[in-house]
Amino acid sequence: METLKRPSKCDINTVVFELLNGVTKVHLNHLLTTSYAAHKAMNEFYDSVGDLADDIAEQYQGVTEQLLSFPTSMNFPTMRTPQDCIAYLRQLYSQVDSCHGQCQYSEIQNILDEVKSLINSTKYKLIFLK
Fold it and tell me: At residue 114, what are phi and psi to the nearest 5 degrees?
């Protein structure tokens, strides 16, 4: 029995890869901040985003019956301040939002919405809670 596979226009490989990298990027920034509020906000982000990336990958691989592929090398700049983290989260939100708008699978769109909510909550805490 052949399974119907609809190609997704969203580059799930790139989004999942960046979300998983975001765990480490934000975790490193979390260790460098002197702000307790920023420290806690970043902690909540990296504790949650990896699981959401895993959910997206598993859903995608299940619906398409294809494994994701990731780059074998990467540039890994570190952030030094909460403001760097805010800038990174803005870029990440834009990437996730673009993918959300192109993704054909509602179950993956729902998880992408959760990622956007996590990013928004983290930005709120970094910007307004001192």
Answer: -65, -40
